[in-house]
């Protein structure tokens, strides 16, 4: 496995990230299984059984970590993120295991770890992974980093800068989980957006349409949005535990 923060362009297929992070794991498994061929489905079933039977670390690298590396080749790149999330869950990967996979993994494996966080980690202890991803210019990692886990746990200051980073790099703000709630009546975010728009205008550069959308959400006179549903580490629906 390689350690890479290489820039990758966002494609329409990348917009499934928030859905992956929010979909209950049972539904995710059913959806993937329905769309895999026979050989890939058999491989996935075996990989999940191995992960469940041998969770945690065993020697230099666990068998389930090897399966993470194979997921794209075995199941196709369009299903690899979901397959890796399912393997991480079957392996009962804790924060230490997720951190190891993230540190040693490819960009694709790092992305899957970020998508898996709301399914596997209930507290803020995995925030360093989100913060690392937010320092990159890999748009697919950035999109994964601003999912439900960040919405629930990222501190207001860091969350605002994550929104600005999306605007800088062209990541659609639709990828920012719970954006309506966290942006509502956020005067500091409104100030930052206004400054960024002014800088772009002064430089003769266009202001992203997404900036106007987020600026509208910061309006304190608007009706506050209801909390988004959250399927958490155990798949149970609830509300976000961290307010901005």
Distance separating the two termini: 37 Å
Radius of gyration over all CA atoms, rounded? 18 Å
Pairing-aware structural class of the strands and helices?
mainly alpha
Average pLDDT confidence is 86
- Describe the oligomeric state of these chains in a short phrase: single chain
Which series of helices and strands comes N to C? HHHHHHHHHHHHHH
Global shape: elongated
Report on the biggest sheet: none
Uncertain runs are 1-15, 235-244
How big a fraction of the residues is strand?
under 5%
Helicity level: 55-70%
List the total number of helices.
14
Give the number of DSSP strands.
0
Structure in words:
The chain is built from 14 helices and no strands. It has helices at residues 17-22, 25-35, 38-53, 63-75, 77-90, 95-104, 107-120, 127-134, 139-145, 148-153, 156-169, 179-183, 187-202, 209-217. Helix 3 (38-53) packs parallel to helix 5 (77-90), helix 5 crosses helix 7 (107-120) and helix 8 packs antiparallel against helix 9 (139-145).
In short:
The protein is an all-alpha fold.
List the helices and strands and how they pair.
Blueprint: H1 17-22, H2 25-35, H3 38-53, H4 63-75, H5 77-90, H6 95-104, H7 107-120, H8 127-134, H9 139-145, H10 148-153, H11 156-169, H12 179-183, H13 187-202, H14 209-217
Helix pairs in contact: 2-5, 3-4, 3-5, 4-5, 5-7, 6-7, 7-9, 8-9
Task: List the main descriptive attributes of the protein structure presented here.
single chain; disordered C terminus; mainly alpha; 244 residues; disordered N terminus
């Amino acid at each position: 496995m390689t350690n890479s923060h290489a820039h990758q362009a966002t494609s329409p297929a990348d917009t499934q990230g928030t859905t992956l992070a929010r979909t209950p794991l049972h539904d995710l498994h059913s959806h993937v299984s329905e769309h895999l061929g026979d050989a890939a489905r058999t491989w996935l079933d075996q990989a999940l059984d191995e992960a469940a039977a041998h969770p945690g670390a065993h020697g230099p690298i666990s068998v389930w970590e090897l399966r993470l590396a194979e997921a794209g080749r075995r199941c196709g790149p369009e299903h690899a993120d979901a397959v890796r999330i399912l393997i991480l869950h079957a392996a009962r990967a804790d924060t230490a295991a997720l951190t190891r996979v993230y540190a040693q993994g490819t960009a694709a494996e790092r992305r899957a770890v970020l998508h898996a966080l709301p399914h596997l980690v209930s507290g803020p202890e995995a925030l360093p992974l989100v913060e690392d991803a937010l320092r990159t210019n890999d748009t697919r990692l950035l999109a994964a980093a601003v999912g439900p886990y960040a919405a629930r746990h990222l501190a207001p200051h860091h969350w605002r800068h994550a929104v600005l980073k999306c605007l800088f790099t062209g990541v659609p703000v639709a990828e920012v989980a719970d954006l309506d709630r966290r942006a509502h009546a956020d005067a500091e975010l409104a100030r930052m957006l206004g400054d960024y728009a002014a800088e772009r205008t002064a430089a003769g550069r266009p202001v992203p349409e997404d900036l106007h959308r987020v600026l509208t959400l910061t309006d304190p006179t608007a009706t506050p949005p209801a909390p988004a549903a959250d399927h958490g580490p155990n798949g149970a629906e609830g509300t976000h535990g961290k307010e901005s």
